[in-house]
Amino acid sequence: MSKQREPVKLVPVPNPNIIPERDADKSPILECRHLGIDFSGLTAVNDFNMAIGRTEIAGLIGPNGAGKTTVFNLLTKVYQPTRGTILLDGYETSKMTTAQINRLGIARTFQNIRLFNNLTVEDNVKLGLHNYINYGTLSGVLRLPKYWKAERIAHERALELLSIFDMENLADIKAGALPYGAQRRLEIVRALATNPSLLLLDEPAAGMNPSETAELMDNIVKIRDLFKIAILLIEHDMNLVMGICEGICVLNFGEVIAKGTPDEIKNNPAVIEAYLGKGK
Prior knowledge:
The protein has about 280 residues and is of the alpha/beta class. It has helices at about 70-75, 100-105, 120-130, 135-140, 145-160, 180-190, 210-225, 240-245, 260-265, 270-275, and strands at about 10-15, 15-20, 30-40, 40-50, 55-60, 85-90, 90, 105-110, 200, 230-235, 245-250, 255-260. Helix content is about 35%, strand content about 25%.
């Protein structure tokens, strides 16, 4: 059972954003300033402003079609914004590719699981270590000492990461043979293998039962505390969002309608109306 967590005080930072008070002495890991994107003249996201503290667990919520995954795609450069600025660890990302963004420190999971089902659990994690495997093509082809050293390091690191979810004993099993919940956890481990400073989780509890969700909540907090990173999640399970998120941003029709702590958000009339409709 997930234990009760102490509420966190949010404080303002420039442009009009909020982060946890404990992160206020450091620049936010992520800042979005007046971010927007249009598709064929239709506005999908407009004037999106958000900051995330360096050790914050933040939530991005809203009704279906509100633009949440579009924001994730903007942050990871799947889409290029029509307007606005994204600062990742102080770096402006407008000319960066998805691969460059990943190397700079953003990793993500997806609504629909994207594992290599015919590869082993360990090999899926090793794919996430691509930024840190340091040997050339010649060493790989000829199996030179540098290759074996890098492979040993990758093997040890993969097992270490899998141990976060007690999955190291599943290392040799094909990913496609794992139960659904274990596949979700593996995708998070693979994202962590890229050594992110900001982890984006797109509906991590989708398809999980209450017991699995409670375990996931504890593991998200564990990851934040162990790796000292920030986490931004999209999630429809409000028990999860209200249970672990410190700051929450609410989107509706591509625009921010509320920001605040879980208590502030769940009592916000605009949020209640967006989810339930007028007069409900």
